[in-house]
Specification:
8 helices, mainly alpha
């Protein structure tokens, strides 16, 4: 259980580890998709209906024109969105955002079932990659590219998690910003070399000769003359 919480925390850190412009874009997509998903329990509005256009008193002619253009044209984008979710990785998270936009565009045509189609496309792709990886179970990644089941499972799980967490980016950042000043964190160890005690400048005590006392100086032994 501890490892699962640690992995979840790692994925949450990765989800917000983006350039500033991409993080701002992620917050917009996150808030929009979250309101749309939650709104399915309150009348099932379309993605364009949840935009605060009418509430703000802005013109809605362009909104109605866009909805009528989407009708009958964008259903296939649900499959595109699922494949974009499959392309998501820690180093490339923008496909998850574009995938959500594609799914919401498809929902203007086919409704909330677009999410199911996207998930089905994602599941089919991962299943195909899993079957292909069975041929590389005993491959040695030395001189050629191989598809290994363990790596496929890890990449698939990461893609699903990073795509599913997109609607939670905006409320997560808001929550962290709200409770951050009230949380006490343990001190961090500064990176660098470990502290080592300075070498002593005192000379080591001289060895005590056998039968002598400490601090006693030995008398020099006179040199013996050679006999001629």
């Amino acid at each position: 259980m501890k490892e699962k919480r640690r992995e979840l925390a790692r994925l949450c850190r990765i989800a917000v580890d983006r350039p500033k412009w991409q993080l701002g874009f992620a917050v917009v997509v996150s808030a929009w998709s979250l309101v749309w998903v939650v709104g399915q329990a309150f009348g099932a509005p379309s993605p364009l209906e949840v935009l605060p256009v009418r509430w703000a008193g802005l013109p809605t002619g362009w909104l109605d024109a866009t909805r009528s253009w989407f009708d009958g044209r964008t259903g296939f984008l649900a499959v595109v969105g699922g494949l974009l979710w499959a392309m998501t990785s820690p180093g490339g998270q923008s496909p998850a955002l574009v995938g959500w936009l594609a799914v919401m565009a498809a929902a203007e045509d086919v409704g909330y079932v677009a999410v199911r189609w996207a998930l089905l496309a994602l599941a089919v792709f991962l299943a195909v990659m899993g079957l292909v990886s069975l041929t590389g179970r005993r491959a040695f990644v030395v001189d050629r590219v191989a598809v290994i089941p363990r790596d496929v499972a890890r990449a698939g799980a990461t893609a699903v998690a990073l795509s599913a967490v997109v609607p939670l980016v905006a409320p997560g950042l808001a929550l962290v910003r709200l409770v951050g000043p009230y949380v006490t964190r343990p001190p961090r160890r500064r990176p660098g070399a470990p502290i080592v005690g300075a070498a002593s400048t005192e000379r080591p005590p001289a060895a005590v000769p056998a039968g002598g006392t400490p601090g006693e100086l030995q008398e020099p032994v006179p040199a013996q003359r050679r006999s001629r």
